[in-house]
Write a structure and sequence with these properties.
With about 230 residues, the protein is α/β, with parallel strands linked by helices. It has a single domain, classed as Undecaprenyl pyrophosphate synthetase. Helices cover about 45% and strands about 15% of the residues. It has a 6-stranded parallel beta sheet with strand order 3-4-2-1-5-6, with helices on both faces. It binds farnesyl diphosphate. Farnesyl diphosphate binds next to helix 1, helix 2, strand 2 and helix 3.
């Protein structure tokens, strides 16, 4: 059966995974990065064209400085270690969010990896970093208002597509399947607009325990549903 074109995931539960084992939270994030590797590989195997991962929200800056700094180091390390595999598997890296507010070294590593993988033809891995949906929508509203004030956009012609085209995700199709690990029934400011018609799959598994078999199960559950898009 045809896989969803675009899967979006809220990777939750790294902290709980570590706590259950009496480990520091960063150990949970390290194991979480291993799940990122496995899930990306499986998306390539399943022919999923786009995979968006919520890696850092605009609210995550409120965490202890040590954890925040550790996450950026982990991300930089991950990008460096994974580049050969991404090249081998044809993974194209992209990022959404206010990337210009990240540490300089993280921005540089991201830009370098995005450039190196730009022509890869398999799955596009989109990392949501310093991302929140309301910030994205506010940025899009500002862009529209600026164009209207400059006289290059007639407000009367604005449609949902006009707005979609100003989102960070303008180039990507909407996700059909949204997965959230560790059981929370919330959207947490993630792709509010883009997930309008997505099927939600919530699993009690913590993100470090979410592997290839779990992804296949989520995709199978997606296939078992009937999607009507408001029709009959
Ligand atoms: C949520 O778990 C996870 C995060 C806020 C960070 C996600 C980061 C990774 C999976 C690793 C690095 C990312 C990449 C792309 C290599 P939590 O800490 O909120 O868990 P808790 O709710 O159990 O405390």
């Amino acid at each position: 059966m045809k896989s969803p074109r675009h899967i979006a995931i809220i990777m939750d539960g790294n902290g709980r995974w570590a706590k259950e084992r009496g480990l520091p939270r960063l150990k949970g994030h390290e194991r979480g990065a291993e799940s990122v590797r496995a899930i990306t590989e499986e998306c390539v195997a399943l022919g999923v064209e786009f995979l968006t991962l919520y890696a850092f929200s605009t609210e995550n800056w409120k965490r202890p400085e040590e954890e925040v700094a550790g996450l950026w180091v982990l991300l930089e390390h991950f990008l460096e270690m994974e580049l050969p595999t991404m090249m081998k598997n044809g993974v194209r890296l992209r990022a959404i969010g206010r990337i210009y507010e990240l540490p300089e070294s993280t921005q540089a590593k991201l830009a370098q990896t995005i450039a190196a993988t730009a022509k890869n033809p398999a799955t596009t891995l989109i990392l949501a970093l310093n991302y929140s949906s309301r910030t994205e929508l506010a940025d899009a509203a500002r862009a529209l208002a600026t164009e209207a004030a400059a006289g290059t956009l007639d407000p009367a012609t604005i449609t949902p597509d006009t707005l979609s085209a100003r989102l960070y995700t303008a180039e990507y199709p909407d996700p059909e399947l949204m997965i959230r690990t560790s059981g929370e029934l919330r959207l947490s400011n993630f792709l509010l607009w883009q997930l309008s018609y997505a099927e939600f799959y919530i699993t009690p598994k913590l993100w470090p325990d979410f592997g290839k078999a779990e992804l296949r199960e989520a995709v199978a559950s997606f296939h078992a549903r009937e999607r009507r898009f408001g029709g009959l």
